[in-house]
Automatic annotation (TrEMBL):
<feature type="region of interest" description="Disordered">
    <location>
        <begin position="115"/>
        <end position="151"/>
    </location>
</feature>
<protein>
    <recommendedName>
        <fullName>tRNA pseudouridine synthase</fullName>
        <ecNumber>5.4.99.12</ecNumber>
    </recommendedName>
</protein>
<dbReference type="GO" id="GO:0160147">
    <property type="term" value="F:tRNA pseudouridine(38-40) synthase activity"/>
</dbReference>
<keyword id="KW-0413">Isomerase</keyword>
<keyword id="KW-0732">Signal</keyword>
<dbReference type="InterPro" id="IPR020103">
    <property type="entry name" value="PsdUridine_synth_cat_dom_sf"/>
</dbReference>
<dbReference type="GO" id="GO:1990481">
    <property type="term" value="P:mRNA pseudouridine synthesis"/>
</dbReference>
<dbReference type="GO" id="GO:0031119">
    <property type="term" value="P:tRNA pseudouridine synthesis"/>
</dbReference>
<dbReference type="GO" id="GO:0003723">
    <property type="term" value="F:RNA binding"/>
</dbReference>
<dbReference type="GO" id="GO:0005737">
    <property type="term" value="C:cytoplasm"/>
</dbReference>
<dbReference type="GO" id="GO:0005634">
    <property type="term" value="C:nucleus"/>
</dbReference>
<dbReference type="InterPro" id="IPR020097">
    <property type="entry name" value="PsdUridine_synth_TruA_a/b_dom"/>
</dbReference>
<comment type="similarity">
    <text>Belongs to the tRNA pseudouridine synthase TruA family.</text>
</comment>
<dbReference type="InterPro" id="IPR001406">
    <property type="entry name" value="PsdUridine_synth_TruA"/>
</dbReference>
<feature type="compositionally biased region" description="Basic and acidic residues">
    <location>
        <begin position="136"/>
        <end position="151"/>
    </location>
</feature>
<feature type="domain" description="Pseudouridine synthase I TruA alpha/beta">
    <location>
        <begin position="2"/>
        <end position="64"/>
    </location>
</feature>
<feature type="signal peptide">
    <location>
        <begin position="1"/>
        <end position="26"/>
    </location>
</feature>
Length: 151
């Protein structure tokens, strides 16, 4: 998914993706998007867990009238940093791959006791039936009250 905007709102994107995942998994109807965007009908955001941040990548930033200058040394240092990070993650990936392979061999081992307990699954609660966060107006009123008490 590629999103282009005039501001990068990290958590807002994660919330959007979480709702899209629920729709994609069949837990929510696509029309829930219109309902959530209608602030008259849904003045408060339902509580739900945001989508993971790992795959979220800020790819490009552009600013009108601003020209960034980067020295050759800074570029080289950045490249070296990325190479070290890449090698570290590649090593971790290889370690986990070996761990997965060893678990696969355990599954084929007859000496291992094969008892499995079922995990208790949680049922999906529709977004519009969930507890909600305070509305913008409620948050603003609470903030204004705190500011007035400090004065």
């Amino acid at each position: 998914m590629k999103i282009q905007g005039s501001a990068f709102l990290w958590h807002q994107i994660r919330c959007m993706v979480a709702v899209l995942f629920m729709i994609g998994q069949g837990f929510e109807s696509p029309n829930v998007i219109d309902l959530l965007l209608d602030t008259e009908m849904t003045p408060r955001k339902p509580q739900y867990i945001m989508a993971p941040e790992i795959p979220l990548v800020l790819q490009c930033c552009e600013f009108e009238g601003v020209r960034f200058i980067c020295s050759i040394d800074a570029k080289q240092t950045l490249r070296e940093h990325f190479e070290r990070e890449y090698l570290s993650y590649k090593l971790q990936s290889a370690i986990f791959q070996e761990a997965l392979l060893s678990v696969s061999s355990i599954e084929n081992d007859n000496s291992v006791m094969k008892t499995r307990t079922k995990k208790k699954g949680t049922s999906h609660i529709p977004l519009l039936s969930r507890p909600t966060e305070p509305s913008y107006e409620e948050r603003r009123a609470r903030l204004d009250a705190r500011i007035r008490t400090r004065e």
